[in-house]
Every structure is written in C-alpha cells, then in structure tokens.
Write a structure and sequence with these properties.
Oligomer: heterodimer
Largest sheet of chain B: none
Number of strands of chain B: 0
Radius of gyration of chain A: 24 Å
Structural class of chain B: mainly alpha
CATH class of the largest domain in chain B: Mainly Alpha
CATH architecture of the largest domain in chain B: Alpha Horseshoe
Number of domains of chain B: 2
Distance between the termini of chain A: 77 Å
Number of strands of chain A: 2
C-alpha cells in the first residue's frame, strides 16, 4: 500500500501595504484631489445654465471637497 | 491661494443653485483657511467672512449671520474707512439681516445711512443707490410708514 505523505508547502504571502507616495512633501491624496478639483472647476465653468446640468455636478463637488478638507487636515494644511 | 479662491467660487456656485447648506460648508472652510493662511484682517479673509454671513442669512441662521456681518462691518470700517464702497455694502448687508430679525428701527437707521452715503459717493443714478433706496423703502413699509415708502418706491 502506498502511503502518500502530504507535502506541506509553506506559502510566503507578501502583503503590500499601500503607503501614499510623497509628492513634493505632500501626501499623494492631496495632490490627486487637487487635480480632481481642477476638473470639477472646469466642469462648473463649462456646464452651461441648465439647472439639471448644474445639479449633476453637486455630488462630485461635495465628494471632492470632503477629500480636500480631509487631506488638508491630515497634512496640517501648510499650503494653499 | 489659487485653490482657496477657486473653492470660494465653488461655494458660490452651490449657493446660487440653492444648495445653501453645502455651499455654506465650503464657504466656512474657505473663511477658516483664509484666516489661518492670510490672517484675520486680510481683505480676502474679510470677503470670505462676508460671503459666509450672506449664506448664513439665507439659511435662516439670522443671529449668527448678524454677528458675522457686524464683524465684517467693524473690520472694514477700521481697515478701509467709513466711506469705502465695500464698507457701505457691509452696512447694507447687516441692515438687511437686522430687518429680518425684526429690529426695524435699527435697520431703517442703517439703511438711511447707506442711502445717504451712496447718493453722495456714487450718485443718484447708480444701481447700488437705487437698490439702497428700494431696501429702505421696504423697511419703512414694514414700519408702517407707508406714505414715505410709496414715495420712495416711485
């Protein structure tokens, strides 16, 4: 009778912890949110006068604002 | 400061479409950041404070609006002088909120002062003078001085 020994394979799981890279001394989150903010401002300027179009932008504006204010709070906000 | 300036415009965009609470939140943030970065007495900070106060009034938070508007007026009187158009505008804004709070005598007194200054500095035909006259007539009407209000509205 053949006895098969199970082979224990040890897996080394490498977990990568995402550390936001620093760009110019500031967390990437703030840098990215600024780029998004520029897009939001551009969208506001280009959205025309129809209330429906303007209202569509509100969730994006507020989401971006939350990110900016959080990121500023996290980075001590030493820049404008 | 570019970002804060743009953010102020975003706040105005929201209040213009009736999203007063959201716009007010952004305007408060701009005011606080501007005060921290530029200082409490900087014209941009005072302007941000003024914008916040107007939205507070629109939101019906009249006591806080009046308090902030008083502060704007005091700062502008001290920094820009009594006759500066921005100071007169701040006085007009405060007078409107005092009227909304039911302090009609104080509001009328202030609106009379606004009108007198605008007539003298800007001239009778200037849109701000006409607006000041309309504001005063409205408060005089609320005070029951209907003849004077009607005369002014003509």
């Amino acid at each position: 009778m053949l006895i098969q020994h199970s082979k224990v394979v040890q897996c080394r799981v490498e977990v990568e912890v995402a550390v936001p890279p620093k760009v110019g001394g500031q967390p990437a989150k703030l840098q990215f949110s600024r780029v998004v903010f520029e897009l939001v401002v551009e969208a506001i300027n280009a959205c025309g006068k129809a209330p429906k179009d303007k209202l569509r932008l509100v969730p994006h504006v507020m989401a971006n604002f939350m990110t900016i204010s959080d990121a500023r709070a996290g980075s001590n906000g030493h820049s404008s | 400061m570019g970002t804060l300036h743009e953010l102020g415009r975003v706040g105005a965009f929201l209040t213009d479409i009736g999203r007063l609470a959201d716009g007010g939140e952004i305007k408060r943030f701009v005011f606080k950041q501007s005060g921290r970065i530029l200082g409490e007495e900087h014209p941009s900070t005072i302007s941000a404070m003024n914008n916040l106060a107007i939205t507070l009034g629109d939101l019906g938070q009249l006591d806080e609006a009046a308090k902030v508007k008083k502060e704007v007026l005091e700062k502008r009187q001290r920094i820009l002088g009594e006759e500066h158009p921005s100071t007169i505008s701040a006085m007009n804004n405060l007078a409107i909120t005092l009227g909304d709070l039911g302090q009609l005598d104080e509001a009328a007194k202030m609106k009379k002062e606004v009108l007198e200054k605008r007539q003298r500095i800007l001239g009778e035909e200037h849109p701000d003078t006409t607006s000041g006259m309309n504001n005063l007539a409205s408060t005089l009407g609320d005070l029951g001085q209907l003849d004077e209000a009607a005369k002014m509205k003509k």
